From TrEMBL:
PANTHER family: REGULATOR OF RPOS, TWO-COMPONENT RESPONSE REGULATOR ORR33. GO terms for biological process: regulation of DNA-templated transcription. Residues 122-238 form the Response regulatory domain. This is Response regulator. It comes from Paenibacillus roseus. PROSITE patterns: GGDEF, RESPONSE_REGULATORY. GO terms for cellular component: cytosol; protein-DNA complex. Keywords: DNA-binding, Phosphoprotein, Transcription, Transcription regulation, Two-component regulatory system. InterPro entries: CheY-like_superfamily, GGDEF_dom, HPT_dom_sf, Nucleotide_cyclase, Rev_trsase/Diguanyl_cyclase, Sig_transdc_His_kin_Hpt_dom, Sig_transdc_resp-reg_receiver, WalR-like.
Length: 422
């Protein structure tokens, strides 16, 4: 941690000399040389103390952090728009004494730097203080996070688009922007709509966290902060994100994937089919007498029948070769799609027969016989034909009862009916 402390001290000394030494006056009027000329605005002074309080406390310079906090409180009691050099010297003198007693080192440079193994997730870290960026990048990297850090809000927004981080850690108050501005702009990008944001700030006002959370931040942590606590909060946010993603992709009744996952699954299946040189197939299973079951036994029985069918289809996934079976998807109320890849046409009929043999195992006891229609079609290698393939399969499913009387090997429309149960 010492290297970050020394780098911060170097930056503090540089800024204090810039403000307090007459020959280095930075203000806009080059003719101002006396101690009565303004060298800093109240906003500039507040941002300086705000940054110092948060960074110094985080990297172990507690006395400097406490003094910066004290000066921030004093600044509220001593409001003035412009600060002449003489007033600023007197006001900052306690901080100057502390800083002059420390040894400095070369500043730490961070510009979209990367660290960490990305085992626990990828992070985008934005702060205008390079010392705290470097420190947190190293600390979070050691804890298994892949960290991309920058001081530039524009670069941060580009990284949201190109890197798609799992979470963002943003400083609330930045010199050129704010963490809230970055968060709102990032979430205009589709990929980042649900990306968790942890806001951090040395702002001690009670309204700061309230504003950040109301505008969409998922968590808020006050500087000075401990890297261990920050890592724990990120772990919780990422766990919550993973659970939400799983729930969003899974049908709540049957526990198989929902139809939102179908386009990506189709792309994967087409790709895998091309690699094996065999055909890929889509099968649609429909519980054709679901309405009758609901009317006779109630919706609870109908739900149990759907869950039983889903379990049966899913159990085949665990029992088949990984190269053959890819996924089961609940396509609509009573319809399920099974994706098969790398199979010969004859193997599809074998698969359907195996499903039929197992259906009674999953059928609720005491219910009417199950009536399930099955249709299937070969996948089109062109991804743009995917929607038409699915629509064609749905048309086949709707006419399955009409074509199911013919033997399987004579069915040009590839339809059949499976009956089972008591």
């Amino acid at each position: 941690m010492e290297k970050y402390q020394l780098a911060l001290i170097a930056r503090l000394k540089e800024q204090l000399e810039l403000w307090l030494e007459a020959e280095q006056c930075p203000h806009t009027n080059p003719d101002r040389h006396s101690d009565q000329q303004s060298v800093a605005t109240s906003d500039e002074l507040y941002r300086f103390l705000h940054t110092i309080r948060g960074t110094s406390g985080t990297i172990g310079l507690s006395r400097i952090s406490e003094e910066a906090a004290s000066l921030m409180n004093a600044l509220e009691l001593q409001p003035q728009d412009e600060w002449p050099r003489s007033d600023l010297k007197q006001f900052l003198s306690p901080l100057v004494v502390l800083v002059q007693g420390e040894h400095a080192a070369a500043p730490v440079k961070v510009d979209a730097g990367k660290a960490g193994s990305n085992v626990k997730g990828s992070l985008l870290l934005v702060d205008d203080d390079e010392a705290i960026l470097a420190y947190l990048t190293e600390e979070l990297g050691r804890r298994g996070y892949g960290v991309t850090a920058t001081t530039d809000p524009a670069i941060a927004l580009r990284l949201v688009h190109t890197s798609n981080p799992d979470a963002m850690v943003l400083d609330l108050h930045l010199q050129m922007s704010s963490g809230i501005d970055i968060m709102l702009a990032a979430r205009e990008q589709a990929a980042a709509v649900h990306t968790p944001v942890l806001m951090m700030s040395a702002d001690m006002s009670p309204t700061a966290p309230v504003q950040a959370l109301r505008l969409g931040a998922d968590d808020y942590i006050v500087k000075p902060l401990h890297a261990t606590e920050l890592a724990a909060r990120l772990e919780r946010l990422l766990l919550r994100k993973r659970v939400a993603e799983e729930l969003a992709s899974v049908d709540s009744l049957t526990a198989v994937l929902n139809r939102t996952q179908l386009p990506e699954l189709y792309r994967e299946a087409v790709s895998a089919t091309g690699n094996t040189g065999h055909d890929g197939f889509l099968l649609m299973f429909q519980l054709a007498n679901l309405e009758q079951i609901n009317l006779t036994w109630g919706e609870e029985a109908g739900n149990a029948a759907l869950s039983g069918l889903a379990q049966c289809l899913s159990s085949r996934l665990s029992g088949e070769s990984e190269s053959e079976l890819q996924a089961v998807v609940r396509y609509s109320g009573s319809r399920f799609i099974v994706l098969l890849r790398g199979m010969e046409k004859e193997a599809v009929q074998i698969y359907i027969e195996r499903v039929k043999q197992r259906l009674s195992t999953f059928w609720p006891e005491g219910e009417d016989r199950g009536l399930i229609t099955v249709v299937y079609t070969q996948m089109e290698p062109a991804l743009e034909a995917a929607n038409e393939t699915l629509h064609g399969l749905l048309r086949l499913s709707r006419s399955a009862k009409e074509i199911a009387e013919r033997p399987m090997n004579e069915q040009a429309d590839k339809g059949c009916i499976l009956e089972f149960g008591s």
